[in-house]
Each structure stands twice: as structure tokens, then as C-alpha cells.
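haha ok so turns out i had the wrong file open the whole time. this is the CORRECT one, sorry everyone. sequence first:
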Amino acid sequence: MNKELETAIMNAADLPTIPIVAIKVMQLIESENATAEELAKIVSTDPAVAARVLKISNSSFYGCRRQIQTLSSAIVILGFSTLRSLVVAASVKQVYKPYGLTEKMLWEHSFAAGLAARIIANRTRIANEEEAFLAGLFHDIGKIIMNTLDRNKFQEVMQHCYNEGISFGQAERTIYPFSHDEVGAYVIKKWNFPEVLTSAILYHHTLEFDEFEDPTVVNLTAITALADLFCLKLGIGIREPEEDIDLASSKPAQLLNIAPETVQQLLETFDKAFQDDKALFVS
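then structure:
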């Protein structure tokens, strides 16, 4: 753990903050006194978020058989836990600015990883699917923060990636004394999300745990890592698909003990869900 970086992030005044509507929704749901009407009222205070939540709740991904027309009915049909992750996703998109090609690709990759993680968690029952969605959504938030704080430096890393054909992780080590995983984990901590999310973001590339690590952390991190690989293999949010990734024998698939045919089914399910509703998610 990088204490110096953690202190810098915790005290930074110019970091993006999580939008107030998401904070209020999370607080109300945690208070256990929430009603659909109260939640709808809070979400309605941010029209852009409200419109986005309605749009996403009508996607085939959430499987509703009839058109959802009001926030209250979306909340009743989807449930509080799903609403929480949708509001976070809809509001956190505001952090992805200035909205040029870099931000567009990062947002597409992040949102898709959230969907992939939710599908993996839903089918395997290994982790809470809404927690998995948030872990996937936030797995690369460190990149967005690094881009926001110093756009030129971040673009330098991207140039290394594309010109030398190396991974982002390899490229960032030539420019920064820390990784996007570390930055992301500390930002999520600063935003007061649960520790299990912080750990999933911090370890999603290394997947290195000690023998006493909480299985919940291991499973959520492995799901996040596998979701990331799904997006890389399909070329979502990157310039070229990394088709040679062997998902079945990857470390996250091994950690989760998922059979090769199941991995392939999950990939196909995710690919179809993403392609069907891509316009709703990333526009």
C-alpha cells in the first residue's frame, strides 16, 4: 500500500467528487427507511441522472417485459440494490470529462466491465451481483482521475501503449511512480464505498492475496479481473481486440473455478447483452 499516495488523494482538493444525488441515494438506502417515492424524489433532483436510470432500466439487460415509464415503478421493479448501482453509474458518468475520445473509450470499457461482472456474478452466484457491477464500473476509475489531474501526462502513457504495443500497466510504470489500481482504490475509499470494493480495484491486475484474505474479496476481485478480460478480448473501449487472450486458463477463471465451457457461455451472453443495448449504456 502506498501511504504517500493515499495521503495525497485523501487531502486533494481538486479531485472529482461523486455527485450528490448518488450520495443521498446510498445514504437513504443504508438508513433502511427508504421508500420508492422518497428515492424517486431524490433521483429526480438531477434530471440527467433520472433520464439515464430510466433509459438503462428499460434495457433488455434488466429483463423487464413491459416499458418502465416512471422512476417509482423502476425502483419497485428493479429493487433498491439495483437502483443504487444504476444511480451511481448514471451519476458517475459526469466524472468522465472532458468527454473526448479517451474519456469515451474509458467510459465504454468501464460500463461494459460492470455489465460483464454483473453477468458473471449472477450466473455463478459467487458474489453479490450489484457489488460486482460497481467493482467492474470502477475498476479503471484511477485512469480517469490521472487523466483529469494531468491530461498531457496521461496521453503520454496512451502514446506508449499504442506506439510500442505494450499494456497500459507497462506504459504507466515508465511515467508514474504509482499505478492506476492504487489511485482508483484510494479514490473509492475517499468516496466512502465499502472496503471490499477498494480491494477489488487495488488487486484486479495482480490478483495476489495472502492466505488469510477474505474469500469475498478474492471472489469479487477475480470477477472484476475476468470482466476486464472479457472487454479486452472483445475490444470494448480499446483500439484493437486482444483476441489471443485465453479466458478459460486465465488466473481469474482459475481462481473462480469456472469450467471452460461456462466461461465461453458467459462471454457470449455478455457480448449479446452489450451489443443489444450499447446505445443505452454508453451514449
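Residues 199 and 213 are 10 Å apart (CA to CA).
again sry for the mixup
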